Amino acid sequence: MNSQIQTVADNVIKGKSKVIAGLVQEALDAGCDASEILNAMIDAMGVVGGKFKRNEIFVPEMLIAAKAMKKGVEVLKPHLAGDGANVYGKMIIGTVAGDLHDIGKNLVAMMIESAGFEVIDLGVDVPIEKFVETIQANPDVKIVGLSALLTTTMPALKDTVAALNNADFRSSIKVMVGGAPITQEFADEIGADAYTADAASAAEKAKELAA
Ligand code: B1M
Asked: Starting from the edge strand earliest in sequence, which strands make up the sheet with 174-178, in order?
């Protein structure tokens, strides 16, 4: 890995949110590819997760690493996003009830927006009713994206999809799911229309579903 990109990744792991924007900008100025920087930052969060699992760090350290990652993504955003022209229609996205993880969901929202959707981001810990109300208030919505990062919130994902599947608007929307513990098998089991493993493939799939 290029040493500047490595420095960005190291500083995400250390949670150096004050310097990260400058480091990302320096890497971009030196000609580093924005997607490569992003992938290194995503891998860095994986390293953070591994350290947490091994009890080498705790929740506060995960939180400051997440803050650093977000600051870095802000600088990358204009370099990753397309022109954002709304050609595919509207999408609603959120992290399911009980789950506070939003970095992956934000990346998915960003990629889908830049692929040509108008994105309504409901944030994290989103109750089922909020998804339903927002879809009812936006009858032109084409896709609903649900993110879950914890094995303990997979049931909330299942319940949210079930509520959408039983709603009278079901035939007018497509339901996409994702997040680290989610698999194609689980998505099929709970009756979602699509599962994707990462933000770039989520954007591709969204275009396919909206076409
Ligand atoms: Co938490 N956490 N966390 N955490 N955290 C994990 C997920 C964990 C794997 C760490 C570990 O143990 N190794 C573990 C879950 C274990 C499990 O479920 N079996 C865990 C835990 C246990 C917890 C707490 C329970 C810890 C505690 O309190 N004891 C707690 C739960 C809080 C809650 O949600 N109720 C908790 C809290 C937190 C913080 C708040 C401190 C912080 C989140 C801050 C934030 O998001 N604003 C945090 C973090 C940072 C992590 C790790 C380290 C990093 C997550 C991340 O941002 N990854 C994570 C470890 C890991 O992932 N290896 C971990 C980078 C991001 C780009 O990837 O989110 O996977 P990801 O998104 C990807 C894909 O999954 C996919 O595309 C994205 C981009 O390519 N994707 C979709 C995501 N959503 C999609 C939707 C789609 C399609 C694709 O369609 C709609």
From this structure: 117-121, 89-95, 141-147, 174-178, 194-195
Cα gap 69→199, rounded to integer Å = 15
Instruction: Kindly indicate the confidence band of residue 148, based on its pLDDT and cuts at 50, 70 and 90.
Output: very high
Kindly compute the dihedral angle of the four CA atoms of residues 196, 202, 205, 210, in this order, to the nearest 10 degrees.
130
CB within 6 Å of ligand 1 — which residues? 42, 45-46, 48-49, 52-53, 59, 62-63, 66, 98-105, 107-108, 145-147, 149-152, 176-181, 196, 198-199, 202
Indicate the pLDDT class of residue 68, thresholds 50, 70 and 90: very high
| For residues 123-137, average pLDDT | 98
Q: Which residue's CA lies nearest to atom 16 of ligand 1?
A: 150
Helices (H), the chain: 3-13, 17-29, 34-53, 59-80, 103-114, 128-137, 154-165, 184-190, 199-210
Taking the centre of ligand 1 as the mean of its atom positions, its distance from the CA of residue 174, in whole angstroms, is 24
Report yes or no: 121 and 131 within 8 Å, Cβ to Cβ.
no
| Cα angle, residue 19 at apex, residues 18 and 22 outer, rounded to 5° | 125
Residue minimizing CA distance to atom 20 of ligand 1: 150
Distances in whole angstroms, Cα of residue 197 to Cα of each of 57, 129, 164, 183, 200 = 26, 26, 21, 8, 9
Determine the distance separating the centroid of ligand 1 and the alpha carbon of 150, expressed in angstroms: 7
